[in-house]
Amino acid sequence: MTDPLAPLLSLPGVADAANAAKDAVFQVHRHRVNLRGWATTAAEASVRAARASAALEGGPTEIPSSGEVSDPVLAGSLRIAEALGGLVGTWQRAPLQALARLHVLAAADLTSEVGRPRVSGDVSSRLDLLASLVTGGTSVPAPVLVAVVHGELLGLAPFDVANGVVARAAARLTSISTGLDPKGLGVPEVACLRRSAEYEAASVAFASGTLEGLAQWVLFVCSALEAGAREAKSIADAALTG
């Protein structure tokens, strides 16, 4: 059976960028703190990822000192952060079920239509194809699959609201489940927020379906994974000295 994502590896710079992303994430897992104290650093990474993802969706980045989050976008993103680890197995065997759960968590305070993708156009067929890729339908390097999951969900926007938060959470699940970032230490979401204009432009390029657009998006995601690994290193360094 032909691998539908294999052609992406022949696009200029993609194979090298994927390898660089893998190496960067691997190295942060070898950090002294992360060899044993990774649960603490992973928790911090998860919260930073949630805050950045919410901000990209128009929510605030700051959690009130009281701990009571009233903003619905940030609240949904934080709910996902708390639940993500428990969804890894479901994502590996039944990704559409996991996707529905992500939307329930993300959009509970935004709409009553939670967990159900739009019934229009080619939404269903494209989600089915994405699910087949996640469950073993491709052998491309993990960063490339992460990019495709992220970009396809952003472009398809299968739900009425909170598609960005869901897409970034699904990308994070893919990083964890493929073994690229099994402990969830990286924070590529922060890089996406810091380079939000470039992030948006690259996602539009991916949705265009052109070879140049596909390459632009995959290269962006790989660079965000590298930047996310640097963010993870700063978290671990702080834990070492703190």
Automatic annotation (TrEMBL):
<feature type="domain" description="Fido">
    <location>
        <begin position="94"/>
        <end position="223"/>
    </location>
</feature>
<dbReference type="InterPro" id="IPR003812">
    <property type="entry name" value="Fido"/>
</dbReference>
<protein>
    <recommendedName>
        <fullName>Fido domain-containing protein</fullName>
    </recommendedName>
</protein>
